[in-house]
Design brief:
With about 750 residues, the chain is α+β, with helices and mostly antiparallel strands. It contains 28 helices and 22 strands. This is OmpR/PhoB-type domain-containing protein.
């Protein structure tokens, strides 16, 4: 008699995936691809093993020849003769033959059937459950031209599997087991069979010269999707694309999976939480960056350490929370908190020296001790263990910037944002870009990045001060005073000393500029820095356009610049004809949105690094812009060193959402929220992506992220408000949100429920 042994225990074998099949003295081990008889290996060909597995997983079911051919040779090259040979070999291996057919029966005109029932082996014990998150990487499905570049469906997930294996906190199932599952499978069955909580699946599509690869992280307990993304490119760029996929999947799992674990833990009673669940709740709380949440995180981490004293990540998490106490001034004994954070990080390292998170927090603890060189050593070690560790890369970039290596700081911050565009520390990554801009004297760009950082969710008082300093240095006093006020409102006793305690800037010119600006803004002088007489050259004052004496200014046509979607300029008579040069349009959009004087040198670097005459290219584009705005109320003021587009009387749609925090929509009236939604025709300047202009592209993406958060928050609020009172109206907004979040299954269910409610109304 046949028996099926599940690695998780017992149950109806026809309804679950198993990795071992037992029958008499035979044992078929699917995971290791072996057939054994009385403890000895039986030599069989791989196709025979596949055939036996197919029979065992479908006991009593007639399996057609067509299905066998498809399962045994997925490239379509198998023949009837090869199938007949495999069936004969399978019968011989099991002591059966075509005459007796006691095990494998021929069903004339239909196919073949396994005659013996499959049941659970009563003497087998279930496999032990694993502590902490576990994951299986499955072969990807192949679509499109399957005969070209064979093997990609296994090569790409194999690289993902290898990369995930470097995450010490994550149990990754070996390839020999996880690659047994081909095709469209129920994630819950795979989870039960492999004993994992999560699975990575995907597709590979090849059409002509193009390739698209989709990857999905699924929750095996519910079958729901935690994260999904698509990567597209030319087949010639496959190596680069594979690297992007590995980085994208690894980065998402390193950030999204812990947050998902925390949401799971919130649904459980406190007394039922284990050390891993407590750790993830602590991680969720610590990234809220408030004193109350940090205290809660500290309590979660301490409880996790009590339950499992050898849990390295719990000690590292405790160091993270203690670091925040010192960094943000949540406790009076700052020195004691710094020393405690260092001790806790060292404990984590001693328990698991190869955990990137433990190395990361040890580097952070040295940063607060002003040992920046020591901090870099441990941060580089964290990144060497996990090359896709976005938070480690970002923090190393910050240390580089504080040490005067602004170029490395900029590159590191850009890399971290590419790896984890929705990271809890995104505000810090943008803040590094701002500090690097100040360091190299690019104050306008620094102000742009600092403003984006301060408006990013979870930003704290140090980020507010960076925004105040950057705007002060760019001669934007109203915004400088605004962010200074925000900082004081958030922490009334904030001072320059607190800033430099948190960010011990070692680069003298950068420190001098920041100290002088903080003093000018009323945050007090620092004890170790003398204020320089002039921290930067003064920007020239823009010259207003004055009509000749004795004449009345000609009436100016009303203008609107639309940036929330494809870039358009509209006058009273309709759309204004625009030049074909995308860089000219990018320049116009940048000048209009920033609304401040921009240095010519900065504009040339941003848009025309490669031409022999970048200033000539700039002059040519400015001449085109003058023609566009000639009849409108905008004035283009070109000074010797700066360019300023005065758009005070121009309707720029971005201004209506600029600086708007996503949470603010909750306090707005329905009509006001719908007015905001109506502004959006697509992503910010979505048709002006300039791949060869990384600085412009980084600015565009930063603003796009900012505006996208507002749109999503507005749509969610409208769906929630109208769901019961006006389901048809709510459905309209739910459809718009679904286009932005197509992988959100809960949202899909909401759309269906609203559609049903609207039909009943």
């Amino acid at each position: 008699m046949w028996y099926a042994v599940s690695i998780l225990g017992f149950g109806p074998p026809a309804r679950r995936w198993v990795l071992e099949f037992k029958f008499g003295d035979f044992l078929l081990d699917v995971g290791s691809a072996r057939l054994r008889h009385a403890g000895e290996d039986v030599s069989v060909e791989p196709q025979v093993l596949d055939l036996l597995t197919l029979f065992a997983r479908n006991p009593g079911e007639v399996i057609t020849r067509e299905r066998m051919l498809a399962e045994l040779c997925r490239d379509g090259t198998a023949t009837d003769a090869a199938l007949a040979a495999a069936i004969k070999a399978a019968r011989q291996a099991l002591g059966d033959d075509a005459g007796r057919q006691s095990v494998i029966e021929t069903v004339r005109g239909q196919g073949f059937r396994l005659r013996l029932p499959v049941g659970a082996a009563a003497d087998e014990a279930p496999a032990p459950q694993q502590d902490g998150p576990s994951i299986a990487v499955l072969p990807f499905a192949r679509l499109g031209e399957s005969d070209r570049y064979p093997g990609l469906e296994e090569a790409i997930p194999h690289e993902v599997l290898v990369a995930l294996s470097r995450l010490r906190w994550l149990l990754v199932i070996a390839r020999n087991s996880s690659f047994q599952f081909h095709g469209d499978r129920d994630m819950r069955e795979i989870g039960r069979a492999l004993g994992v909580g999560y699975a990575v699946t995907g597709i590979v599509e090849v059409f002509g010269p193009s390739i698209t690869i989709g990857a999905t992280l699924a929750d095996c307990a519910t079958g729901g999707i935690v994260w999904a993304d698509r990567f597209s490119g030319r087949i010639d760029d496959l190596m680069q694309l594979r690297a992007e996929i590995v980085a994208g999947v690894t980065g998402a799992i390193d950030t999204d999976l812990p947050l998902h674990e925390a949401r799971r833990a919130l649904a459980r009673a406190p007394e039922d939480l284990d050390a891993w669940q407590l750790f993830h709740l602590g991680l969720k709380s610590v990234h809220q960056y408030t004193a109350v949440d940090n205290a809660a995180a500290e309590a979660y981490f301490r409880r996790a350490v009590e339950l499992q004293p050898t849990f390295a990540r719990a000690h590292a998490g405790l160091s993270f929370a203690t670091f925040q106490n010192a960094f943000m001034g949540y406790v009076s004994d700052r020195r004691g908190a710094i020393e405690a954070a260092h001790r806790q990080a060292e404990t984590g390292i001693s328990l698991d020296p190869m955990d990137p998170f433990a190395n990361f927090v040890l580097g952070r603890s040295l940063w607060l001790q002003k040992d920046l060189d020591g901090a870099v050593t441990w941060l580089e070690r964290a990144v060497s263990i996990n090359p896709n560790y976005a938070q480690g890369i970002y923090t190393r970039a910050l240390i580089d910037t504080l040490s005067g290596r602004s170029l490395f700081g900029t590159e590191g911050a850009d890399q971290a944002m590419r790896l984890s565009p929705l990271d809890p520390l995104l505000y810090g990554m943008r803040g590094v870009k701002a500090l690097a801009g100040i360091s190299r004297g690019d104050y306008v760009a620094a102000a742009d990045w600092a403003g984006a950082a301060a408006r990013t969710p979870r930003a704290h008082v140090i980020i507010d001060l960076i925004a105040a300093v950057a705007h002060h240095l760019s001669d934007d006093r109203p915004n400088a005073l605004h962010w200074a006020s925000v900082a004081r409102e958030r922490k009334p006793d904030v001072t320059a000393e607190l800033f430099f305690d948190g960010l011990p800037i070692a680069d003298p010119p950068l420190r001098a500029q920041v100290a002088a600006s903080l003093a000018d803004l009323g945050f007090g002088a620092t004890s170790d820095v003398d204020r320089p007489a002039s921290p930067r050259p003064a920007l020239p004052t823009a010259t207003a356009r004055i009509p000749p004496a004795g004449t009345d200014p000609a009436p100016r046509e009303r203008f609107a610049l639309e940036t929330l979607g494809a870039f358009r300029v509209r006058g009273e008579a309709g759309a204004v004809a625009l030049p074909r040069s995308r860089k000219t349009l990018a320049l116009l959009a940048y000048l209009a949105v920033t609304g401040k004087p921009q240095r010519r040198e900065r504009l040339c670097e941003m848009l025309w690094e490669r031409p022999d005459d970048p200033r000539g290219a700039l002059r040519w584009s400015l001449s085109k812009i003058r023609r566009i705005i000639a009849a409108g109320p905008a004035d283009l003021v070109a000074e010797r060193d700066t360019i300023h587009l005065d758009t005070g009387a121009v309707d720029v749609d971005y201004r209506r959402v600029a600086g708007l925090h996503p949470d603010a929509v909750r306090e707005m009236a329905d009509d006001r929220i719908e007015e905001i939604v109506a502004l959006y025709r697509g992503g910010f300047l979505e048709d002006l992506s300039l791949g060869d202009c990384p600085d412009f592209e980084a600015w565009r993406i930063a603003v796009s992220d900012e505006t996208d958060l507002v749109l999503r928050a507005a749509l969610r609020e409208l769906v929630a408000r109208f769901a019961e009172t006006d389901p048809a109206r709510a459905l309209q907004h739910a459809h718009a949100l679904r286009r932005l979040e197509p992988a959100d299954r809960a949202l899909g269910a909401t759309v269906e429920a609203l559609r049903a409610a609207a039909n009943r109304a």
